[in-house]
Amino acid sequence: MKNIQAVIFDLDDTLYPEKSYALSGYRAVAELFESVLGDAVVTYKRMCALFDSPHRARVFNVILEEAGIDNTDDLVRKMVTACRTHAPQINLHDDANEALSLLRPQFKLGVISDGFLDAQQRKIEALQIETRVDTVILTDTWGREYWKPHPRAFEEISRTLQVAHSACVYIGDNRAKDFIAPNLLGWSTIYIDRPDGVHRSKPAPPGGEPQHVVHSLHGLDTLLS
User: Rounded distance, CA 182 to CA 157, Å?
Assistant: First the structure.
């Protein structure tokens, strides 16, 4: 891979394990709603089990149903809000931490990430991402219609960093949406295939196939040179 000047990363499951964020949120919710749900440790363990089940998208609903609580819609909304606004206990993947350190002297670095703005801002703060890269774009700043695969974030970061599209590379974990826009714009694209990736099973649509696949960010500096 030649003439790369800017390396742009996705956030969730690319730079840190997305599951750790979910479990951090479950702990916060279990503690905040202990008076409703009972012992926070027991509730937290049950939520963790549900994450690895077909009920992942309905964890809070299932917890309330199992507690015998009716009319749960308002409580679920409050629990979702608590999860999204908690201070996450998360850490960078070791290979991501290494890559950010090794690449910074040679390349301009950035992050493009989807997700609800409050939650993504708290993740960026917890991981101290803004001290490690040149720019961060959270697409929900503009509204959900600008989440990937919309090209706006990729066009904006190219302008901000003053790097041509052909000299940019995007590294992400979700083949369903991460690579459609950068492929169209002439970027290089790399899929990070992590064994515990939440979106690992999602296939790429036509035009969304990554150009390269890696299983770790160790050695990324060699691949890009």
Answer: 11
Same domain, 155 and 145: yes
Pair 67, 41 in one domain: yes
In this structure, are 81 and 100 located in the same domain?
no
User: Which of 85, 111, 128 is the last residue in one of the domains?
Assistant: 85
Using CA atoms, how far apart are residues 203 and 212, in angstroms rounded to an integer?
15
In a domain, 1, yes or no: no
CA dihedral 161, 163, 168, 174 (to 10 degrees): 40
Q: How many structural domains compose the chain?
A: 2
Indicate the pTM of the whole model. 0.94
Cα dihedral 148, 2, 128, 180, rounded to 10, equals: 10
Task: Tell me if residue 149 falls in helix, strand or coil.
Answer: coil
User: Residue 38 corresponds to which tokens in the numbers above?
Assistant: 């009972």
Residues making up the chain, counted from first to last: 225
Closest CA to 173 of 26, 17, 3, 48: 17
How far is CA 131 from each of CA 90, 97, 124, 218, rounded to the nearest angstrom?
16, 12, 10, 20
- 74-131 tens-digit pLDDT: 999 999 999 999 999 999 999 999 999 999 889 999 999 999 999 999 999 999 999 9
Could you give phi then psi for residue 88, rounded to 5 degrees? -70, 145
Output the CA–CA distances (angstroms, integers) from residue 54 to 51, 59, 62, 159, 189, in the order listed.
Answer: 8, 10, 11, 42, 31
CA distances from 11 to 68, 82, 172 (A): 37, 21, 8
> Could you check whether the bond before residue 149 is cis, i.e. omega within 30 degrees of 0?
yes
